[in-house]
UniProtKB/TrEMBL annotation:
Domain 4Fe-4S ferredoxin-type: 139-168
Name of this chain's protein: Succinate dehydrogenase iron-sulfur subunit
Listed cofactors: [4Fe-4S] cluster; [2Fe-2S] cluster; [3Fe-4S] cluster
Cofactor note: Binds 1 [4Fe-4S] cluster.
Pfam family, one: Fer2_3
Family the entry assigns: Belongs to the succinate dehydrogenase/fumarate reductase iron-sulfur protein family.
UniProt source species: Agarivorans aestuarii
Keyword Membrane in annotation: yes
């Protein structure tokens, strides 16, 4: 087994680089070392100018998304043992690069906010009435889609978002579906305006790569297709009941 592994990182320092450039580092190899730990080694021991995001190191915060050999990955869930011939690390695709592996996710955050990712209910229960209750079946309708950690990997994998930034995108549409399926929520009509829009669910070309790269096994591609079903129902209802 090699004592070290070569990691090529696409660097971009706006104060000195006109465009991103590759830089290579030799990192001590251990079977248990994650890419995030390797980046920490590089920053601490080899090059303190390297910039990247991280927080929890447990695949919960979603901060350390990056491209590894062209595939969107979380640095904390990516291990050197799976890349014994070396790895090429870049900032997440489809997002503007701010510096090195740090990208501007403002558009992604705005899209998440736009779908109103919270319970909407104009008639909340009184305190003395106790909590809302749900059956296991009701919870199962949306639980999978609630596991998203907003890492942005699905946007980096989405060819439609890469071509058209107006597309609402996988994570936002999956989160929208999550709240629309929640029995405690009454905001579906508001959110369906986003689903029905040209840049909503119908903008998806159903490549399905978003679901493949999700580190939490959410299936945004399925959520979007279910959104299309709801959208089609809205269209049929509008045909026969134009006033509704």
């Amino acid at each position: 087994m090699a004592d070290s592994i070569k990691i090529d990182i696409l660097r971009y320092r706006p104060e000195s680089d006109k465009e991103p450039v590759w830089q290579s580092y030799d990192v001590p190899f251990t079977n248990e070392m994650s890419l995030l730990e390797a980046l920490a080694y590089i920053k601490d021991e080899l090059d303190p100018t390297l910039s990247y995001r991280w927080s929890c190191r447990m695949a919960i915060c979603g901060s350390c998304g990056m491209m590894v050999n062209g595939v969107p990955k979380l640095g904390c869930k990516t291990f050197l043992r799976d890349y014994k011939n070396g790895m090429k690390v870049e900032a997440l695709a489809n997002f503007p690069i701010e510096r090195d592996l740090v990208v501007d996710m403002s558009d992604f955050i705005e899209k998440l906010e736009a779908i109103k990712p919270y319970i909407i209910n104009d008639n909340p229960r009184a305190l003395e009435d106790g909590c809302h209750t749900q059956s296991p079946k009701q919870m199962a309708q949306y639980k999978q889609f609630s596991m998203c950690i907003n890492c942005g990997l699905c946007y980096a994998a989405c060819p439609q978002y890469g071509l058209d930034k107006s597309f609402t995108g996988p994570a936002a549409l999956a989160l929208l579906h999550r709240y629309n399926q929640d029995s405690r929520d009454a905001g579906k009509a508001e959110r369906m305006k986003i689903v029905n829009a040209e840049e909503g669910a119908w903008g998806c070309t159903f490549v399905g790569y978003c679901s493949k790269v999700c580190p939490k096994d959410v299936d945004p591609a399925a959520a979007i297709q279910l959104g299309k079903v709801d959208s089609a129902k809205d269209y049929v209802i509008a045909m026969f009941k134009p006033g509704e």
